[in-house]
Specification:
Blueprint: E1 2-5, E2 10-13, H1 17-60, H2 65-78, H3 84-88, H4 90-95, H5 97-105, H6 111-129, E3 149-154, E4 159-168, E5 171-176, E6 191-197, E7 202-214, E8 217-221, E9 226-231, E10 237-248, E11 268-278, E12 282-287, E13 296-303, E14 306-320, E15 325-335, H7 337-350
Amino acid sequence: MEVYNPIVNISWPLPGVFGITLLLGMIFATVVIYLVIYYFRLKEQTRIQNYQLFLFQVKRKGLSNFQIKILRNMSAYLKLANPRDLVSNAALFESSLADFTGYIKSQNEERENITDIIRDIAVIHKKIFSKTPYLKPFESMSDLEDAEIIYLTDDVNNVFPGKVTGRGSGFVSITLFTPAKNLKLFENEKPVALHVLRLDDAEYMARTVTAGIEMNQLKVKDTTEITKEREFRHPYINVMLSAFITIEKPTVQEPDDMAKSADKTNLTESLEFTVVQLNEYECVLRSTMQLGFDRHFPLIFQLDTFKLSAMARVISSRTVEKDSVYYLTMKFTEMSDSGRAVLRKFIAESM
């Protein structure tokens, strides 16, 4: 059918049912393609946002790049849409350890690499989920906390992450994150080593023997054979901050004044230093004077608008003889919870 227009002297055909259907189909297909592209673009934006929030959350907890990579691999292994689920749900994290460590071992990794990964998994758990991540040095089996993540090694190079679940008379109960069939390795007494981590201190090893299996929990005997394997060294950030340490001011007294000064308060002076490197547990001071290793010093410096006070002691010293400059590494021995939170946030935002 054609329609004639007498004004412009043109005629054109009107579309039939097929033509109208084809046109509507093309419009519908275009809308569908647009919606699909929009959906995947929105999904990708959501994924990027979730990952950025995930990075922000784990960096605030002080995780290293290697530990973040482990979490990413765990998230991918579990096929999680949002990696934040892994660091906000302790039960999910722990339930995935048996399968994930089994997957790592199946990749023909060297034992040292597997041990490093499992050690970092224990560190990740402490930093993210532990309510008391900064515990006192490990000196006896009674220092083990309930629900604390440790890892266990034996004399044939097996390594398993585990969780302290209880204690009894002369033994500690541990749930190993491994298939139940592997527990048969420890049915009889067997020499093992427990590796215990203290984030602000060191990694300790307790040599002991197993005491059987009860309700799928491994029992290990108490032991006093505990050694410090290595101290934790945390990465520094470079800063340039003024710091002040108060020390007693030496005075020269005449013999006649000795008795008079007995009831006087010791004179003190505030010395200025420069903080050149900083982490959550230590700082490096640059100074033209040396400080003793045998005492604790009150240290004050400012982070943004927060005046941070701590007690610190010198643990190492390096001298640049040409410039007569000392670089003193000082470990924080006392700090308020609010101060540590501010310090941790400052370091996370500076990394």
